[in-house]
C-alpha cells in the first residue's frame, strides 16, 4: 500500500522581504528577547488572530542595521520600520517615547514628538539606558514589549501594511502587520509623527 505524506505548503513570502523566509513567531519565541516573547504571548491570549500573524527570521547579527539587511537580502527599504527612543523632561519628570517610523522617514523629534511629550526639548535616549530599561539589545529594540512607563507612538504609515522590526535581539527580525502594531498596549497611532527622509 502506498503511503502518501502531506507536505505543508511553504509560507508565502512577505511582499518586499527579498530572499528572507520566516516562521511563526509564537512557534519560535527563543528567537526574540524575553520582553518580546511575553508581549506576543499576552497578545495571543486577547487577539490570537493578530498574534498568529507575527513572523520571525534569524539573521547574522552583523546585518541587524537596516541598510545592511536591506542590501544583503534584497529587501524593500520601505518594509522596514525603526523604533526610536526619545526623551524629554517636564517639571523634573523624564518622559520617554518609543516612536515607530518607516525607514524611509525620520521621526519628527523637534516638533511632533516634543509636542506629544509636552516637553521643552526632546532628544534621543542614550544607548546604555535604552538597553537597560528595555531588556533588549541595541539595534534590536522593538515596539513589541516596551516598558509600560513609555509612550508608544506609531506613525500612521506603520499602521497599515507589513513592517520588518526588531525582535529585541540583533540576531533576528520580526515581521508584523500594521494592525498588530496598532493593537499593542498603549499604542497611539499618530499622523505626521515622521517626515520624509
TrEMBL record:
- Domain (YbaK/aminoacyl-tRNA synthetase-associated): residue spans on this chain: 61-179
Pfam families on file: tRNA_edit
- InterPro entries (UniProt xref): YbaK/aa-tRNA-synt-asso_dom_sf, YbaK/aa-tRNA-synth-assoc-dom
Protein's recorded name? YbaK/EbsC family protein
Origin species, per record, is: Schaalia naturae
